[in-house]
């Protein structure tokens, strides 16, 4: 027995020594086994990058939401004085049915089914996800045992229906909603790689319940949030456009609507939208058409194409506005071209013909320009090829050039196809003294973790298709279509600004060939700019197949959009109205490096208003920058040194506030849209980069609808 137990002892001792020396047992490393047993890992979820407008207002962002889980196993209540599982499925279902998208009976059936299956817990599918913080708190107030909430991130579009086909939407990748958020459409899809963050993790030593062991270290890998994308879209102008499209959609019930607002000096797209559209938070209204129609769909442009035919004739020196021709019809081989007034207006001048939108005038102009030369000008204006906008799948359209008849019909926009974005790009050359600007929607991409600017998009000038002199003359003639008694664009006259543009009525091709015909079967369009003296905005509008009354014309629908959006946007941008805009624009001088007080005197002597940010020393920054055009009585911002005195912001637009905020670096919190009504610190207050200032804005409609204080008149008793 002694030998037996002694042998076992030495065998066991040897085993201990072996394990102690080698650190292995049964071929496995014990340290690794311990690491596996006690090592715990927690994921630090990265946020998807935000999509913001040009002023930094959020268009799309991740927001905190909750997922609902019901613990149904009685095992969860073991060793607990109060229940930790669902004890009353009927009462639980009654409460939950008021907060999630399941009926009371559906919830009861789901709970009972899983209780019978002896499951520990149950989830509620899509209905139990994306629960708001308010709803989570409301459910908790019922003190129902067994209900747990886990935090999650949900993609939120706070503006709702807002440039939806441009922005698109993103969803959780897998059906259960547990994976990462992935872009499915629009910018969310196009820039998915930029927007997607990299999740981090926390690795630590913990017990079986997940609690940190004493003296254990944590290894943290920080999450890297996705890049933020700043657009050229201006939220305020986009809202103006959305409101106008909604009104016209309701009033005229068109088959389609497309509209774009652009800055002709830079090519920035300030707003774009279409109808039908959808609500990105719920995808309600999303049909099979996922195309961004402004860039991916082509149409025959109709008479808006006459702008570029006119420009070609002027540039070639063959435009004679006072020469006459016989209107009504023009025959080429076996084809007769007719004016919309088939009897014509007799012999009229080419200028009157353009104002009346005569097709025959364009046919005669083509003879003067020459077929090949004309087609070359269309290519110069960017037709027949993509604009190069920073969006994918851009259509290039087709220039009908197969024969003499096709080239004639192209002069007035029939037979050839274009995109709305191509029309806007071509119009920048007319508005911008011959300089054609490439359109773009991405302003910059910023890494929020390092503040590094990953992409900074600068305006891109393309080869000028025409001279500055030609552009100015085309602009004058386009203005006459609004002001002339013969002009087809008289309805596009604005209250406060001068307008230049061209109407268009295009036939819509049938799928099997030929064209639809009838007052309600056309595409009505308008391509215009304002103010004429120094165009700040281009607006393109097309309305397809609107329901028109017998006395209504297509320009009624297009002008309702153009006039509203253009007028409100120019006022929002603080563009001076017509009564002072006839004065010649001023080229902004360079004042950086010059004494602030001297700069102020010099600028005000030129008829400009000045906003001073720091009154000491020399000018560090100025806005606008040297060389840019600014209208008389325009506002210039100059930044010097020293203390900053807060101006009176009342009446300022949000755009001007953003300029001031950027230059001054004061943490101004801007609440609302429209124009400033109140500010938290009085004008003249001395502020610094550490002084918080809150500014409240309101739209004109909100200001006008605000209840006014009642005046009380005291009556004096009479003897």
Number of domains: 4
Average predicted local confidence, pLDDT: 88
Strand content: 15-25%
Determine the number of helices (DSSP H or I, runs of at least 4 residues). 22
The low-confidence runs, each spanning 5 or more residues with pLDDT under 50, are 209-213, 708-719
CATH level-two architecture of the largest domain: 3-Layer(aba) Sandwich
Helix-residue proportion = 25-40%
CATH superfamily of the largest domain: DD-peptidase/beta-lactamase superfamily
Shape: globular
CATH T-level topology of the largest domain: Beta-lactamase
C-alpha termini separation:
135 Å
> What is the tally of beta strands?
35
Rg computed from alpha carbons, rounded to a whole number of angstroms: 34 Å
Class per helix and strand makeup:
alpha+beta
Mind describing the biggest β-sheet? 7 strands, mixed
CATH classification, class level of the largest domain:
Alpha Beta
């Amino acid at each position: 027995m002694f030998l037996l137990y002694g042998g076992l002892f030495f065998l066991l001792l040897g085993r201990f020594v072996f394990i102690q020396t080698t650190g292995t047992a049964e071929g496995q490393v014990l340290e690794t086994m311990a690491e596996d047993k006690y090592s715990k890992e927690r994921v630090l979820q990265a946020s998807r990058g935000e999509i913001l407008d040009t002023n930094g207002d959020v268009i799309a962002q991740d927001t905190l939401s909750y997922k609902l889980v019901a613990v149904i196993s009685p095992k969860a209540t073991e060793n607990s004085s109060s229940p930790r599982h669902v004890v009353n499925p009927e009462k639980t279902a009654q409460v939950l049915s008021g907060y999630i998208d399941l009926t009371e009976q559906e919830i009861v059936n789901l709970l009972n089914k899983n209780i019978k299956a002896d499951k520990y817990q149950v989830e509620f599918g899509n209905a139990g996800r994306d629960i708001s913080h308010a709803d989570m708190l409301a459910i908790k107030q019922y003190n129902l045992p067994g209900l747990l909430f886990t935090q999650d991130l949900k993609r939120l579009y706070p503006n709702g229906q807002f440039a939806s086909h441009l922005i698109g939407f993103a969803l959780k990748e897998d059906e259960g909603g547990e994976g990462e958020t992935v872009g499915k459409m629009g910018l969310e899809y196009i820039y998915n790689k930029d927007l997607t963050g990299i999740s981090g993790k926390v690795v630590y030593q913990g017990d079986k319940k997940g609690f940190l062991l004493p003296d254990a270290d944590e290894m943290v890998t920080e999450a890297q949030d996705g890049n933020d994308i700043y657009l050229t879209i201006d939220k305020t102008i986009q809202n103006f456009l959305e409101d106008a499209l909604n009104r016209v959609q309701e009033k005229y019930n068109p088959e389609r609507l497309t509209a774009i607002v652009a800055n002709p000096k830079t090519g920035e797209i300030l707003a774009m939208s279409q109808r039908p559209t959808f609500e990105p938070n719920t995808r309600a209204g999303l049909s099979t058409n996922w195309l961004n129609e402004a860039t991916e769909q082509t149409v025959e442009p109709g008479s808006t194409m006459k702008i570029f035919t006119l420009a070609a004739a002027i540039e070639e020196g063959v435009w004679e506005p006072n020469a006459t021709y016989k209107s009504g019809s023009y025959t080429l081989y076996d084809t007769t071209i007719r004016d919309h007034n088939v009897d014509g207006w007799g012999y009229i001048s080419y200028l009157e013909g353009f104002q009346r939108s005569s097709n025959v005038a364009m046919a005669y102009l083509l003879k003067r320009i020459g077929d090949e030369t004309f087609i070359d000008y269309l290519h110069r204006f960017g037709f027949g090829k993509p604009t190069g906008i920073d969006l994918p799948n851009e259509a290039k359209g087709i220039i009908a050039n197969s024969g003499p008849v096709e080239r004639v019909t192209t002069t007035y926009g029939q037979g050839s196809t274009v995109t709305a974005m191509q029309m806007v790009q071509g119009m920048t050359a007319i508005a911008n003294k011959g300089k054609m600007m490439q359109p773009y929607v991405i302003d910059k991409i910023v890494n929020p973790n390092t503040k590094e600017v990953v992409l900074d998009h600068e305006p891109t000038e393309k080869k000028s298709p025409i001279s500055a002199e030609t552009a100015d003359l085309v602009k004058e003639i386009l203005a006459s279509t609004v002001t002339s008694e013969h002009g087809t664009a008289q309805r596009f006259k604005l209250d406060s600004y001068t307008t230049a543009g061209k109407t268009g009525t295009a036939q819509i091709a049938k799928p099997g060939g030929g064209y639809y015909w009838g007052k309600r079967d056309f595409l009505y369009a308008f391509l215009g700019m304002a103010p004429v003296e120094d165009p700040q905005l281009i607006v393109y509008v097309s309305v397809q197949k609107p329901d028109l009354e017998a006395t209504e014309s297509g320009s009624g629908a297009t002008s309702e959009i153009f006039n509203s959006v253009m007028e409100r946007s120019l006022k929002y941008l603080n563009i001076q109205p017509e009564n002072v805009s006839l004065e010649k624009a001023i080229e902004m001088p360079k004042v950086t490096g010059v004494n602030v007080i001297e700069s102020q005197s010099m600028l005000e002597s030129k008829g400009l208003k000045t906003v001073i940010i720091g009154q000491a020393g020399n000018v560090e920054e100025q806005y606008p920058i040297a060389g840019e055009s600014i209208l008389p009585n325009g506002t210039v911002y100059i930044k010097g040194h020293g203390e900053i005195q807060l101006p009176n912001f009342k009446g300022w637009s949000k755009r001007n506030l953003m300029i001031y905020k950027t230059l001054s670096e004061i943490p101004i919190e801007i609440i609302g849209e429209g124009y400033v009504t109140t500010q938290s610190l009085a004008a003249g207050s001395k502020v610094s980069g550490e002084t918080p200032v809150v500014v409240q804005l309101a739209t004109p409609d909100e200001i006008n609808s605000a209840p006014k204080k009642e005046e009380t008149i005291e009556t004096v008793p009479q003897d």
